[in-house]
Amino acid sequence: MSELVNAMMLAAMRRIPLFAKLQLYKQLGSATAVVQNKSDIRAVVPDATERLAVMLREAEEPQRWAEQELQFCIDKGIKVLTFNDSEYPQRLRQCEDAPLVVYYKGTANLNPKHVINIIGTRHSTVYGNDCVRRLVEQLRESCPDTLIVSGLAYGIDICAHRNALDNGLETVAVLAHGLDDLYPHCHRDTASKMISQGGLLTEHPTRTPADKKNFVSRNRIVAGMSDATILVESASKGGGLITANIALSYSRSVFAFPGRVGDVYSEGCNNLLKHGSAVMITSADDLLTEMSWESDKAMELKRKTGIERQLFPELSAEERSIVNVLAKENDLQINQLTVDSNIPINRLSSLLFEMEMKGIVRPLAGGIYHLIC
Fold this sequence. Notes:
Layout: H1 2-11, H2 18-28, H3 31-36, H4 50-58, H5 63-76, E1 79-82, H6 90-93, E2 101-106, E3 114-119, H7 126-142, E4 146-150, H8 156-166, E5 171-174, H9 188-195, E6 198-202, H10 212-224, E7 228-231, H11 239-249, E8 253-256, H12 267-274, E9 279-280, H13 284-291, H14 296-304, H15 317-328, E10 332-333, H16 334-341, H17 345-357, E11 361-364, E12 368-371
Parallel strand pairs: 3-4, 3-7, 4-5, 5-6, 7-8, 8-9
Antiparallel strand pairs: 1-2, 2-6, 10-12, 11-12
Helix pairs in contact: 1-5, 7-8, 10-11
C-alpha cells in the first residue's frame, strides 16, 4: 500500500521532469526508495544533477492527497498500476516517457498477444466509418483476441470503440483527464459498456480537467501500449498524425487507409503513405500479414492437418526452457517470458538473439517473441 502512495506522490511532483523521475525510479527500484531519499538523492544516486537534487528537496510530499486519492480509487473499483506492476501495459514500459502511474477501470488484460490502436479525425466521413467497421468485423473473424485502443473522441475514435463492442472485441479508451469525469459527456453510455468489455485508462488523477495539453500527452500512451497504429482518416494536421509520429518514434508499426486524392480528411493518410512512413492497409489480412500475426483460421488448419512443432536440434537447457514456454503460449512479451522461463532478462535477451540467428524465434513489434514452427 505504501508503495502505491509513494508512486502517486512521486508522479504528482510536477516540477520534476517525467524523464528524471522515471530514471530515478528505475535506478532505485521503487518510488518508496526515491521518496525516502529525496532530501539527499545524490547520496544514493551520485550522478544525479544538483538541479535535480534541489528540485527533489523542495518538492512537496502530498501524502494526504495520495492517501485520499488511493481510497477514492479503491471505493470506485479503479486500479492504480505502477511502472513495475505486472498488470501495467508492458509495451508502454519500453517507452522512455512512460507514466510512472496509470489509473485503470475495466476488465481487459492490458497485455494480450495483440494490441492495436485505431485513430483518426474527429470529423470522420462515411468512408472512414466504413473502413473501421469492415476492419473490426474482419478482426473478429481472423484475430478476435485483438485489443482495440483509442481515445474516446468524436469521429474515428468512438467509431472504433463502438464497433469493437458490437463485434465482441475488448476495447480500451485512453483518457486525457481523471476517472471522476468523462469527456465528451455524450460518450458516457459507450464508456460504461467498455468497463465490462475493455476499460478506461489514464495517467491523470481525479479532478484533472480535459485540458488541451493532456490530449497531446495521452497520444503517447495510445501509441506506446500498442503493437501497431492504424490511421483511418486525417487532415494534413491533427491528433491522429501526432499519434502516428509518436508510434514511429517508438519503432512501432504504422498503417494507414488510403483516401481519394483531394479529400481533406485523407490528406494526412495519403501523405504518410507517399513518404513511406506508413504501410497501406485495406483489410485485416493486410495487418496480419505485415505484423506476422497468424490468424485463428490458419492455426486451426495446422491443427487439423496435424502440423506440429518440430524439435529443434542442439538446444541448451535454457533455450529448451524458452521453447517450452513459447510452445504453451506463443507470442509472449519479453517481460512475461523472463517470468515464465525464470531466466534473468539480460541473459534472456542474449539467448533470444542467438535463437533468432538459428531461426528458432522471430521478434515482433512491442518486444514480443514468436516461436517459429
